[in-house]
Each structure stands twice: as C-alpha cells, then as structure tokens.
Amino acid sequence: MKKICIVTGTRAEYGLLRPLIKRIKEDDELQLQLVATGMHLSPEFGLTYKEIESDGFIIDEKIEMLLSSDTAIGISKSMGLAMVGFADIFERLKPDMVVILGDRYEVFSATTVAMVSKIPIAHIHGGETTEGAFDEGFRHSITKMSCLHFTSTEEYRKRVIQLGENPDRVFNVGAIGIESIKKLELLDRNELEQDINFKFDKNTALVTFHPVTLENSNSKEEFQELLNALDRLNDLKLIFTKANSDTDGRIINLMIDEYVKNNNNKAVAFTSMGQLRYLSAMKYVDLVVGNSSSGIIEAPSFNIPTINIGDRQKGRIYSETTINCQPMENEIYKSIKLGLSTKFREKIKDTINPYGDGNVSEKILYIIKNSLNNGIKLKKSFYDL
C-alpha cells in the first residue's frame, strides 16, 4: 500500500485540498498521511486544524513552527523550525510521495526536506506568477524540487516546462478550488445569515486583503486606502476575512478589528470562515474586494466582479470578471462603483472561468497512482526548449 502524505498549513489551502484528501482516504490502494502545521495550530488564526478533524480526517502529525511574529526575522525562524519538524516527521512516516499545494513558506520548508530525504514531491498550482509576493520565489523553487506538476491552466503548464521540467511530468488539470464550488452543497442565504449573524442587503462585498511582501510600498498604507474608499460607500455592507501570517498580516488584522468596531452596523470580520461558509458567502455577495487569489480563481465561477487591488496577484490569468486597480482610494472607489453597475454585471453574466470546471482531484489521483505504480525517478534532466 502506497503512503501519500499531504501537508497543509492554512485554512484556505486545506479547503482546496479537501476533495483530494477525501479521495485518497477512500482509496483501498493508498494510505493517507496528513500533516498540519503553520496557521492551523495557532490560536491567533483560529486553530483551524479542528476543522480538518471535524471533517472526519485523522491528522497524523502536527508541526508547531509559527512564531508569534510576522517580521522577516520571525518568518525566517519559523521556516527553520518547520524544517526541523518535517525532518523528524518524514523519517517517522516514510511516505512514498508528498503532495503540496501552492507557494507559502510552510510548504517550501516541507518541500526542501522531502527533496533532501529523497521523497518524490507532487506540486499543485505551479507555474503561476504573483509579482507582489515573495511566494513567487518559493513557488518556482518548489517546481524545481518536485517530480510531478499539476497546473491550473495550459499557460501555467508551459511556464513549468519553461523552467526545465519534462512535459511528460506536467499536467494541466484545472484549479482544484473549482471542484468544491461544483460539488459542495452550499448554504442557502437564510442558513448563512443565521450562521454568521449577518444580513445581506442590496449591496454586499466580501473583503480579503493580504500583505504585499515584495513591494516597497507599505501594506498598512495600502489597506488604509481601501478602508478610506469603503468609508465613502455607506450603502455597501462588508464581510471581512482576516489576513494570513505573512509580514504585516497582524497589522492588517488589527485595522480590520478597529474598522468593524467603528462600523458594526455594516461590517463583520472572521479569522476563518471555513470553506463552506466562505464559498456560500461568495455566492450571495455582490462583489469580491481585495488581493486574494480566490477573487481571481474561484469568484469567476459565480459570475461576480472582483476588485483586484495592487500588484499582489499581478501575473495571474484574469477573467473578464476582474477589475484591476492601484491601491489608491479614488481608484478603489471608482472600481467598486463600476463592479456594482448594472452594465458591468450584465457584461460578465455568462463568463466562463479560465481555471476549468472541476473534477480535478480525480485527475490528480489517477496520475499519482500511475506514477507510483510505474516507478517515479527522482533524477531529472533539465528540459531545454
């Protein structure tokens, strides 16, 4: 029986991986190994490992690695702790393959240790670009350490090949997040309103703003520009989901708390909504605002506008539902007004999501099983174009 180890460090990442985790658990030929780390184990970020357990999954190992600091020094030390933890855990679990998603520093640490430990790595969502975040460097480094690659579009597949990976190991399967939208039974409006103690009005926005880690500009200043724009929209109700543990994430979260305290008639905030409530909220809001990848990848499936602020997601493939703007009050304000307009809503009502139509986990698992059964070689030659 082949052992597949899945590493997850954040609430959002787990939500994306959940369909694949479920398939591996239900496969009689495979043994699921689940490792939780990072924000999952932090009280500050909602102890979201409990969500994994409530879904019926057993967490085989937990790695405490997240220091209560979002400075560059703090994050670097957290990465060091993570590598020490993964070294011990991979030695105990002895997985036949490690599966990771994305580009955060937690999974970069796991990938580095797995490579040194001669464990094959399957990477989901490689080949993408996010020029405003240091995740960019992590993502492409993870690509070079991985043996199998599952991209969300054909353009991203070509980019992974451009990095020297053999085309026979690079597969365009679509974005795994779309699968949950298609298969989850989302809450109806009344259920969601009762669950989050919030009433949807005519205009409601789902707001997520993460730190911009590779820009000279200040994340605090950029977020303040967004709050200033929202202050000018008195008839717009707001659901904030808080920032991640990147540099300045805690500052943004304090600003959210203060804003909600002063605007509790129109705004609520959540450390973690969980995947079901988050996607259900996305179904009923009028637009998504911020700089999260979910506004680029998942929101188009609901045919709602995304106001994408700044350069954090620069380089990604955008659908016509996305309105890009700079992190300046007037630009944000005008973009939100455009997104709420009947003309724009009419324009995007039949949008086809460029990130696929779901059924991704089945494709990924089929390829992983074939690769393991046929014997996957760790040694790679650089593929020249």
- CA(first)-CA(last) distance: 37 Å
Give the number of helices. Answer: 15
- Quote the CATH topology of the largest domain: Rossmann fold
Poorly predicted tracts of residues: none
User: Beta-strand percentage?
Assistant: 15-25%
Strand order of the largest sheet: 3-2-1-4-5-6-7
Order of helices and strands: EHEHEHEHEHEHEHHEHEHEHEHEEHHH
Shape: globular
The main pleated sheet reads as:
7 strands, parallel
The average pLDDT is 93
> Which structural class fits the helix and strand makeup?
alpha/beta
CATH-assigned homologous superfamily of the largest domain: Glycogen Phosphorylase B
Helix content: 40-55%
The first-level CATH class of the largest domain is given as Alpha Beta
CATH architecture of the largest domain: 3-Layer(aba) Sandwich
Q: Write down the Rg.
A: 20 Å
Number of strands: 13
